Amino acid sequence: MVRQRAQRLAEQIKKEVSEIIQLELKDPGLVRMMSITSVEASRDLRHTKIFVSIYGSKEEQEKILKILEKASGFIRTEIGKRIRLRHVPEIEFRIDSSIEYGDHIERMLRDLDVKPGADNPR
Predict the structure, then answer these.
(1) pTM score, two decimals?
(2) Which of 16, 27, 28, 109 has its CA at 20 to 30 Å from residue 35's CA atom?
């Protein structure tokens, strides 16, 4: 029951944070270069990890992550206004590299260019 509530809260936070970043934050680079991939809420609902996928170089990723960390107080306040909770959870942003990793694997598979045929042992 508690885990289910944490999952529902995580989904609601994901929706609200996406909206806050798109509509409330003044930095237009955030919207174009990132997306929220998932949110994890702790069992006691006091902490959340927000995973973001950021398109760009490592330097750009770090820059956007710093902007998000700087804005986390504002985002947390907005969440408190939008979602009725006893305690608004602490927010921690983390880079989600799973999309980048999947792209890397896909490029490796394309580079192999294995074609089925007589030379390909199965």
Answers:
(1) 0.78
(2) 109
